[in-house]
Amino acid sequence: xxxxxxxxxxxxxxxxxxxxxxxxxxxxxxxxxxxxxxxxxxxxxxxxxxxxxxxxxxxxxxxxxxxxxxxxxxxxxxxxxxxxxxxxxxxxxxxxxxxxxxxxxxxxxxxxxxxxxxxxxxxxxxxxxxxxxxxxxxxxxxxxxxxxxxxxxxxxxxxxxxxxxxxxxxxxxxxxxxxxxxxxxxxxxxxxxxxxxxxxxxxxxxxxxxxxxxxxxxxxxxxxxxxxxxxxxxxxxxxxxxxxxxxxxxxxxxxxxxxxxxxxxxxxxxxxxxxxxxxxxxxxxxxxxxxxxxxxxxxxxxxxxxxxxxxxxxxxxxxxxxxxxxxxxxxxxxxxxxxxxxxxxxxxxxxxxxxxxxxxxxxxxxxxxxxxxxxxxxxxxxxxxxxxxxxxxxxxxxxxxxxxxxxxxxxxxxxxxxxx
Amino acid sequence: xxxxxxxxxxxxxxxxxxxxxxxxxxxxxxxxxxxxxxxxxxxxxxxxxxxxxxxxxxxxxxxxxxxxxxxxxxxxxxxxxxxxxxxxxxxxxxxxxxxxxxxxxxxxxxxxxxxxxxxxxxxxxxxxxxxxxxxxxxxxxxxxxxxxxxxxxxxxxxxxxxxxxxxxxxxxxxxxxxxxxxxxxxxxxxxxxxxxxxxxxxxxxxxxxxxxxxxxxxxxx
Lengths: 420, 221
Known about the structure:
The structure holds 2 protein chains of 2 kinds. By secondary structure, chain A is mostly beta strands. Chain A is 8% helix and 43% strand. In chain A, helix 1 runs antiparallel to helix 2 (20-36). Chain B is of the alpha+beta class. Chain B is built from 5 helices and 9 strands, in the order ααααβββββββββα. In chain B, strands 1, 2, 3, 4, 5, 6, 7, 8 and 9 form a 9-stranded mixed sheet that branches. In chain B, a hairpin with a 3-residue loop joins strand 2 (125-128) and strand 3 (132-136). The radius of gyration of chain B is 21 Å and the shape is globular. Chain B starts with a helix and ends with a helix. The relative contact order of chain B is 0.08.
């Protein structure tokens, strides 16, 4: 291939030799100018971000103008990412943040000319990411585990300067006896404290992996991270999940915190426990013993992963269909996920949304914007679409189509604040 | 640098030089390298002799085993002798089987049945054949029939075929198709609650987070 420099040189010498080539050159100039004004090349902030995966497991990150209509071929507007960024992305105010699993380098990126460009990075030693929480405009609390996954660790970062404000041990109880590792499933902040949901796992050996039948909710002082109390909860297990990959909790308008347990085979692998929603009231640091929304015992009759709040006491849950997959080998590739509308206060399933079955074990595939819930669906028969659910009028319609190489829409995020 | 069994051993013991480590890493991730000869014919012969000596040393022991201190009733003694013989025979058959399986690949490494056993509780052993690269996880036994593609696996393996492959697993009617130059994680156990799991390394993220961590830690991926 001829380099750009060489092309330029050839072009320049060509102009000196024959005048008609000047016309071609000017024409090309217009062409370049036209390209410069193509939407994907514009130096402006796009309101939404999509994270896609193609059939060869290559990833794409694209900024988009709207989710309501149109068709996008990702390969035409961006290049695939050089390395896998493995889905655990945090997106806020036009920036992307990602912890590289092996090197433990936490990098801040910006989308420039359609490409993700690293602009700053800091190393986070002995840290495996489990959960994130913005505790201020530029203050990011990363809560996770050490490399051995048996002790809590945290990093409080200033993401504007990309510096560590504080870091250290996250004072949760450690696994004992047969339990060798932990999972932190949610972290939420009250005025001067943090509520941390977690559970333990026995060593994975002889083809067995599971989770303890007990989960814990620790109250830690913030920002000192000292333990104040630990509550044990047996009604279900595996609280929440890894929220950089998929949400399983929310806080309602009154400040009540809700989290879903995920004991299904794709998360806790303790399938005899029910998938359920629990509540920690705004004025309490413990679970409400009168509230237990058992989804597995409802008409859903399955386990679920992924819970999103729509506002006004309604939520969407993404539940699996155990009759359609055979096990963990095809859990992600077979379309089997359904979306149910929930009445959180009454602990009732309102209805199943009439959407095509979705594929992908864990995806951040719902984005709520005012009265609209955007739901990204990947179905090999009906295509890859962002569906629009009108919450108030209970109406579903197709929005933006993702075509070309798209196989999975892994994430749908608000890239800029205050986006309508 | 030539990668050999000795270098691999030192690699797993973390006692090789940075240059050697780099050579092993390059070899592990390069599909174009020559198949590794783990044991020379001389070493195979000596291993064979050692194994026969072991078997031979066991046989007289079984015959000259001390009788029980308390004289046992005659019937019990007969039963005891029967079981003693049975145990010895089973032991002999097992050792002969092991010897066969161990020695067969060295005679014809690309044909027939190959057995890979990793008894370590933490280390991974790496094997390179003409048609695939294989990493055998800790506490794993894999019997691979290279001709039919049938695998009897207990434990975890990471396999990277050098050409498209079809595999069948003991206890599963499913045919698993693996594409060349891709890496697959395969877990199987006759006990336990996981059953057979086959996923492309790139789809590791879809497994439960706890299983992901274990596999990442085990295979250093």
